[in-house]
Amino acid sequence: MNLVLGPYGEGVETLLHGEFGAYPSKGSRYALSLTQTALHIQRLVPKPETDQRTVVPLAEVVGCHTLRNRASADRAAYFSVYAYPLKKRKVAVGSGRGRQRAARTFQVDGADDYEKNQAVAEKWAAAIKCLVLGIPISSDTDIAPSLLPRPRRLLLLLNPFGGRGLALQWCQTHVLPMITEADISFNLIQTERPNHARELVKGINVAEWDGIVAVSGDGLLYEVLNGLMERPDWKQAIKIPVGILPSGSGNALAGAINCNAGLEQVLGLELLLNCALLLCHAAVTPLDLVAVTTASGARCFSCLSVAWGFISDVDIESEKYRHMGAARFTLGTLVRLASMHTYRGRLSYLPAADATAHRPISRSITVAPNGRLPLQRLPLHRALSDMGLCEERHAFWGAEPAPVPCPSPGSPPPSSASILPPPSFSFEPGPGELPAGGAGEARVGGPPDELLVPLGQPVPGSWVTVEDDFVLVLAIYQSHLGADLFAAPFARFDDGLIHLCFIKAGISRAALVRLFLAMEKGSHFEQECPHLVHVPVRAFRLEPLTRKGILTVDGERVEYGPIQGQVHRGLARLITGVDRLKIATG
Ligand SMILES: Nc1ncnc2c1ncn2[C@@H]1O[C@H](COP(=O)(O)OP(=O)(O)OP(=O)(O)O)[C@@H](O)[C@H]1O
Fold first, then answer.
1. Any idea where the DAGKc domain is (predicted)?
2. Rounded CA gap, 484 and 555, in Å?
3. With a 6 A CB cut-off, is 438 part of the ligand 1 pocket?
4. Which of 216, 329, 420 to mutate to test the pocket of ligand 1 (most atoms within 8 A of CB)?
């Protein structure tokens, strides 16, 4: 058994070991060892003065392609490993971290003929891809490309107006090249109007796709989930893995996915790159959905939260600061604090008997500014799996003029990638409430809510009812309320719980500010604030007794009035990218 030194000096079993040249070569040679979690690269020639070893964690790798030099005299085969490590922190303030592409190309030249070298390159590429995708292999496995599933096909739905309107630009420059290196085929469709995503997913053949990914804020994913639940075949349809590539202003679910992977809390492009990396790793986790019913009887499925009071007020009122991105919530919070309201209401809930009680406690809609796209459409109507190879061509051309690699026979087939044309669209946000059900519509199917009785009837006797004046009520089921609002640190994707949090009237402005500041780190419960209450529940009902107010479901405004919900454990499936691989936090 071959061993390499692990992070603590311990021996770690190697799955593959080999000595290869590099491209561009410059006469260098390397010893490569592949373990379950990392690629260890040791330079052999020229011999370094000190032991020079590079460890590439597989958690940062998205894919590996084999290449062939067109020059017939070259009997070597090549494989390229594509990684996205975190950049080192720069000294300059605000310089950011983020991930940076780092591709290494190795030259397999141990045999006299190309076929033998190519077989070795294929074996390495297959092993690396298996590990990235979580396909179990060991040193006893006969590693071959046949172990790999066919390339994934993802439907990417992009809201060009989400957040600061950068989704398309970021997707073209960062996401598409990365997922192409991960052998993902995709169709990218830009949404043209609210509810477009919902209509699209109602009409697709789910068997043709391995996942639906919203390149947007949380609002578009909400539409995807509800569109799936509105299908007659919702039971099968809702099992299609869904994912998010955050380009909105709240990005709560992306914040939760990032946190679940053990990554540092980040915003903007850094969060997008983390989520794109996790998407390439494919692992899927069950996701709880909460069936929410409003006064008119409309029913929808929510994956984030129901909010009333301070949080929904800030969310909806800060729409006018949308151009600021995530900072809109900070400004909205300050404005709301200046005129803090309390709301009288009756809150009833079914406590989750078996859930560990936690200490007491406590997202958005897209506006197209003028209907114009921030970007012109780029010429991307081609097979995008060419992209990685083009970059390699650069590497070859740039350094040495002669060889031009082309995909070797075992490289993935070209992606059936396309981008549908951007719409010409103008959207004027209406100030009023959404129609009955707002974020949801009565057509939605799904499992029965066996814990709920109709809104017109009293709640069952086993429920607890609190009537009080509230600053806010928040029924949250994910850890994050926004990418940097770690509101419910104890929440898990599939814990089967609604974390009911509320803040009662009487809290001072200063205490409320302290709570929100602490929420960035998720330490607000540690403040032991007596006005803050948290109860894990299976179902809840909120009956506002104050005549006017704002209610949101997953950050989208719904009709104001009595509202109730119950959790359906693990009903959907979320691409979280974390299975057995642990993402390095750098
Ligand atoms: N082309 C479009 N023009 C206008 N609105 C759209 C378009 N496509 C989708 N929408 C609507 O915009 C809403 C919000 O979009 P999204 O969630 O992507 O962005 P966001 O609100 O900035 O982000 P977050 O929800 O994370 O705060 C969606 O619910 C959808 O109904």
1. 149-296
2. 15
3. no
4. 216
Q: Take residue 36 and report the two structure tokens written for it.
A: 């379950």
Burial 452-478 (b: 16+ CB within 10 A, else e): beebeeebeeebeebebebbbbbbbbb
Q: Give pTM, 2 decimals.
A: 0.84
Centre of ligand 1 from the C-alpha of residue 221, in Å: 9
At position 348, the amino acid (one-letter code) is S
Give the model's pLDDT for residue 2.
67
- Cβ of residue 332 lying under 6 Å from some atom of ligand 1: no
Please, which pLDDT band fits residue 335 given cuts at 50, 70 and 90?
A: confident
The answer to whether the beta carbons of residues 469 and 344 sit under 8 Å apart is: yes
Q: Which residue is listed with tokens 């390149």?
A: 215
CA distance 94 to 97: 9
Look up tokens 């169709």; give the residue.
187
What's the token pair of residue 396?
A: 């070859």
Secondary structure tally for the chain: helices H, strands E: 12, 25
Tokens standing for residue 111: 């045999």
Distance CA 328, CA 555 (A): 14
Ligand 1 site, residue 364, Cβ cutoff 6 A:
yes
- Give the whole-angstrom CA distance, residue 439 versus residue 219: 9
Residue 158 Cα, ligand 1 centroid: separation in angstroms?
9
Antiparallel, parallel or unpaired: β 102-108 and 77-83: antiparallel
| Cβ of 159 below 6 Å from ligand 1 | yes
